[in-house]
Amino acid sequence: MITTAFITHCWKNFPRFEPLLLSGAKRGRHLCVVLWALLCLCCVSLARAETPVDLQALKLTRQESALYLSANWQFDLPVALEEALLKGITLYFVTEVDISQERWYFYNQRVAHAERHVRLFYQPLTRRWRVNISPQPFNVSGLGMSLGQSYDTSDEALSAVRRIVQWHIASASDINPDAKQTLSINFKLDLKQLPRPLQIGAAGQSDWNIAFSKTQRLELTP
């Protein structure tokens, strides 16, 4: 807001751009000023292009015959999305994990893949918040394979959306301790599960752009 106000104030003080009355040098200076102002406006727009997302407390543990992931997503829900929830719009978040094994003679081989779909919505009649978790998209599975829980406040519901506890992401047989393996984790607000008209309206809107992507070496917690 400070940058925008500064640009607006300076723009009002710029001499009018009258190319027919200005010399070549003056026209050049005015063009540079105009380009500089447009660049500042673009920088302000890019700085607000998406909601910041961070991954904290990432922990991978191997227990018996499976590999589990625990972590916490850190992000704030934009006001536009809060208003959409109160109006009856359901939000969908998806976390995808891939484990790949390096191969010197060919492309890396994907040895494991897991998905975690979270559905968040508000129930006006009971004034409660509902969170469902499923291993596949809700438009495919419905609610048959999902786990659900209700919450009294939006903060409690969002905490459930952000928190991942002991998520089964692979079998122990997929993990080769003698090979170089990488973990890729991706998180986003899934617009594809929204109603088609809302998908079109949300596309390109910065408030609906919530995403995170990271790749690192696979390291298990002892």
Major beta-sheet overview: 6 strands, antiparallel
| Overall domain count | 2
Helix content: 25-40%
Q: What Rg do the Cα atoms give?
A: 24 Å
Sequence of strands across the biggest β-sheet: 6-5-4-3-8-9
Elements, N to C (H/E)? HHEEHEEEHEHEEHE
List segments where confidence is low: pLDDT < 50 over at least 5 consecutive residues: 1-22, 30-49
How much strand?
35-45%
- Tell me the structural class: alpha+beta
Number of strands: 9
**What is the molecular shape?**
globular
Give the rounded overall mean pLDDT. 78
Instruction: Please tally the helical runs, counting DSSP H or I stretches of 4 or more residues.
Output: 6
Q: How far apart, in Å, are the first and last alpha carbons?
A: 48 Å
What does this molecule look like?
With 222 residues, this protein is an alpha+beta fold. It folds into two domains: 2-47; 54-217, no CATH class. It contains six helices and nine strands. The protein has helices spanning 2-13, 24-47, 79-86, 138-141, 154-162, 196-202, and strands at residues 54-63, 66-74, 91-101, 109-123, 128-134, 147-151, 163-171, 181-189, 211-217. The chain has a six-stranded antiparallel beta sheet. Strands 1-2-7 form a three-stranded antiparallel beta sheet. A hairpin with a 7-residue loop joins strand 3 (91-101) and strand 4. Helix 1 packs antiparallel against helix 2 (24-47). The two termini are 48 Å apart.
